[in-house]
Amino acid sequence: MSGIAPPGAAVPAPRRAAFVFIFITVALDMLSLGMIMPVLPKLVENFMGGDTARAAEIFGVFGTAWALMQFFFSPVLGALSDSYGRRPVVLISNFGLALDYVLMALAPNLWWLFAGRVISGISSASIATSYAYVTDVTPAEQRAAKFGLLGAAFGLGFVLGPALGGVLGAIDPRMPFWVAAGLSMLNALYGLLVLPESLPRGQRTRFEWKRANPVGSLKLLRSHPELSGLAVSEFLAALAHVVLPSVWVLYAGYRYGWDERAVGLSLAVVGVCAVIVQAGLVGPVVKAIGERRALMFGLAGGVAGFMVFGIAETGLVFCLGIPLLALWGIANPAISSLMTRRVSETEQGQLQGANASIQGIANLAGPFVFTLAFAWSIGGGKDTHWPGAAFVLAAAMLVGAAAIAWSATRARY
C-alpha cells in the first residue's frame, strides 16, 4: 500500500472547471434517471402486452436490480479510484451511461431493457467516486459546503428530469433515452478536456478485492468508533428518506385526495426547496455553528417536517412541512464531511463506496418497511387508523440518528 503524502506535500489544484464538471456529472446522472421515470414503466407495460399488473411486478424487479448494482459496484468503483485515480473511473462511467441509454433506446424486448437497467446501476455507482474527487480537492473545513452543492445537483436533476422526460415521452417513448445518451456522451467528452486527476500517485493504494466488495468496504466503517457511529446514523437517515418515494403518492391520494397533477407539483416544490437549502444554506450554516451542530440542526428539520406530514389533517398543513423537511438537506453534507476527516487520503474512495453501499441497503429495505407501515396504518381497524404512521416512523429514525451521531462525535467537540 502506498504511503500517505506528508502534510506539506503539494496536491495539484484542479481548475474551477473540474468541480463544475463533477457538479454537471451528478446533475446529469440524476436528470437522466428522472427523464426515463415517466416512460420506463409504460415501455415495460408495452412489452407485457398492456398487462399493467404484471408490468408493475416486472418494474419492481427492475428497481431492485438497479439498487443491487449500486450496492455491489459502488465499493468496487470507489476502490478502483483509490488505486488508479478518480478521473478514469468517472469518465469511463460517463461513457458507459451514454452507451447504456443507447442500448435502452434500441431495446427490442424486455430482456434488453433489463440489461440496460443493470448497466445503468453499475455506471451510476460512480457517483461515490465523484464525492471522493471533491474530497481530494477541497479543504476539510469547506467540504460540507461542496457536498451541499452536489446535493443541489441531485435536486436539480430530480426536479427537471421527470418534467423533461414527460414532454419528450409524449413525442416518442424512446426519445428520453436518446436525449439522456446524448447528454451523457457530451459530458464525457467535455470531461476529457477539463477534468484533471485529483489523487496524486503517492496517495494511491493497491487494489484488493477484499476492500472492494460490499462487506470488505463496510469494514472500513468499523475501523474507528466515531466512524462506526456516524455510519449507523447515516444508515438510519438514509432509511428514513426512503419513506418519500415509497408512500408519498399513496398517502397524498388517500388522505388528501390529490390527483397526479397535485402530487407532481408537490414533489417539484420538495425538489426546489432542497436545491435552495443545499446550494445556499449549507455553507453559511456550517461556517456559523460547525459541522456537528449543523448535522443536529438538519436532522431536527427532518424530524419536524416528517411529524407535520404525519399529523397534518389537510393538504395545506401538509405542505407547510415541506420547507421544514428541506432543512434536513443540511445534515447529509455535514455528516459526509465529518466522515471524510476520519479516514486517510488513500481511503476516501473506499469510504464513499461504503457510504453508497449503506444507501443501497436502505433503498432495498426501506420500501418494504414503509409500505407495510402505511398498509397497516390504514387497514388495521378503526382503533389503529393512523395514515401518517409511516412518516412518524421516519421521524423516529431521525431522532435515533441524531442521538447516535451526537454521542459518536462527543470526544472531538
Detailed description of the structure:
The protein is mainly alpha-helical and 413 residues long. It has 2 domains: 14-195, Up-down Bundle (Growth Hormone, Chain: A); 224-413, MFS general substrate transporter like domains (Growth Hormone, Chain: A, Up-down Bundle). The chain has 18 helices and no strands. It has helices at residues 16-36, 40-47, 52-84, 86-106, 110-124, 127-137, 143-171, 175-194, 209-212, 214-220, 225-241, 243-256, 260-280, 282-311, 315-326, 331-340, 348-379, 389-408. The longest helix has 33 residues, at 52-84. It starts with 15 loop residues before the first helix and ends in a 5-residue tail after the last helix.
Q: At the first level of CATH, what is the class of the largest domain?
A: Mainly Alpha
CATH superfamily of the largest domain: MFS general substrate transporter like domains
Unreliable residue stretches: 1-14
What class, by secondary structure content?
Answer: mainly alpha
Q: What is the string of SSEs from the N terminus onward? A: HHHHHHHHHHHHHHHHHH
Distance between the termini: 32 Å
- Radius of gyration based on Cα positions: 21 Å
Based on Cα principal axes, name the global outline: globular
Helix content: over 70%
Percent of residues in β-strands: under 5%
Write the layout of secondary structure elements.
Layout: H1 16-36, H2 40-47, H3 52-84, H4 86-106, H5 110-124, H6 127-137, H7 143-171, H8 175-194, H9 209-212, H10 214-220, H11 225-241, H12 243-256, H13 260-280, H14 282-311, H15 315-326, H16 331-340, H17 348-379, H18 389-408
